[in-house]
Amino acid sequence: MATVSKAEFNIASRMNRLPPAPYFRGLVGRVSTGGLFEFYELFMAGAVGAALVNAKVMAVSGLAYFIGAGFFGMFFGTSIFGNISDKIGRRNAYVYSLLIYSFFTILMAFSPNALWIDIFRLCAGFGVGAQLVIIDTYISEMTPASRRGYYIAFSQFITYWAVPVVAFLAYALVPTDFLMHGWRWVVLIGALGSVVVWWIRSGLPESPRWYENRGEVDKANALMTEIEKQIERQVGTLPPPVAGVGEKEAKGHFREIWERPYRSRTIMLLIFNLFQTVGFYGFAAWVPTLLVSEGVTLLHSLLYTFVIALFNPLGPIIGMIMSDRWQRKWQIVVVALAIGLTGIIFAQMRVPVWIIVFGIVITLLNNWFSALFHSYQAELYPTRIRATGVGFTYSWSRLSSAFVGFIIVALLKPFGITGVFVFISFAMLVVAVVIGGFGPNTNRRSLEEISSL
């Protein structure tokens, strides 16, 4: 029997020799449920925002505040809960943040005016903004190095199903007025996170790497042994572990992300996240409103958005196939440049079929890009500061997103949709340069090896 229960090998060496197994798919599927609610919140903004403008609840300029409020909340939630996750564990931070989101989303659904809608959306963003950071951190620590990119892409495949769901609900419910305005039903459905949160928690083990790093070696080994037993029952005898690079037992501190060798990675990811969100959310959150500004009716805009949204889960499938086959940093570079080019072409389209075709292409590229960088940024810090580093740098994408809305509003009137996509393309060029020029190679290296580079 190849299961290892003694402490002669560290958790990394035991985890990295494990083969692909149904256990990992089940674990990733369960934890990714939380990501569904973050993506629901993110992509709800475009459809609900367009409905609020159409219903004269707020002006187009007010839409920037509505979208910005959610991202400001996510900015603080992502950074704070990332640090909390390194202190109280991945599972506890995951649960608490989801409950905060659900509570304030319910309040937002029944808000009386635009001011309270924005306030409660900010608070909901504080809770849900941490989900992807905690999920990425958790999956990177709970899966073998050879398949890390695949499993994070699989997680993205699951979470992106929120996009066609929210697009369909917006298309079906926004025009209705049953008991209350249809947009309120769309928001309320997003609060269902509180219903599933305890089911998620009950089957979610803590990260044995996190236990080991805190010096709780007995807990780490007991949990790792149980994981090995489950996988052995599924796939047969396991290969023996091979000794590899370990991490020192230490409590992480925020200042460490600004010390060598992590300072350059922190600066790189900070710049990357400031700009990547322009391309990603600039399209996803604003496409219904951009189409309306070009003379497309709200109903047709929501219909086009729904058709495009159906293809969202396919982007991560490309990531599942490609992520571990070619260096992730170079995939990020190529896909970022492709997003910029396709966006310029999309801006010229006025015929419905071509709007949909190029919208689908951008969507596939965006979501492949998302699967790549979520895996990549979670690989660049050691366990003791992984969620802190990822949370802090990723939070700047939320701050950037809060201001992107104001920039798009400023560009839309004088330059139209073409000006908006020129701006987006420039942002993706910056992304390609910063990752291509300063990012390390990570594929098929253990987290511990990458953190020691």
Describe what you observe in this structure.
- With 453 residues, the protein is an all-alpha fold.
- The protein has one domain: Growth Hormone, Chain: A.
- The chain has 21 helices and no strands.
- The protein is globular.
- Residues 1-8 have low confidence and may be disordered.
Kindly provide the name of the CATH class: Mainly Alpha
Question: How helix-rich are the residues, as a percent range?
Answer: over 70%
Shape: globular
Number of domains: 1
Which secondary-structure class do the elements indicate? mainly alpha
> Which strand-content bin applies to the residues?
under 5%
Mean pLDDT across the residues is 84
**Which H/E pattern describes the elements?**
HHHHHHHHHHHHHHHHHHHHH
Do you know the CATH topology?
A: Growth Hormone, Chain: A
Largest sheet: none
Distance between the termini: 34 Å
Q: How many helices in DSSP terms?
A: 21
**Weakly predicted, low-confidence segments:** 1-8
Q: Based on the coordinates given, report the CATH architecture.
A: Up-down Bundle
How many strand elements?
Answer: 0
CATH superfamily membership: MFS general substrate transporter like domains
**Over all CA atoms, what is the radius of gyration?**
22 Å
How would you summarize this macromolecular structure in one to three sentences?
This protein has helices at 11-16, 22-31, 33-54, 60-88, 90-109, 114-128, 131-142, 148-159, 162-173, 182-189, 193-202, 208-213, 217-235, 263-284, 287-293, 298-309, 314-322, 328-347, 352-377, 386-438, 447-451.
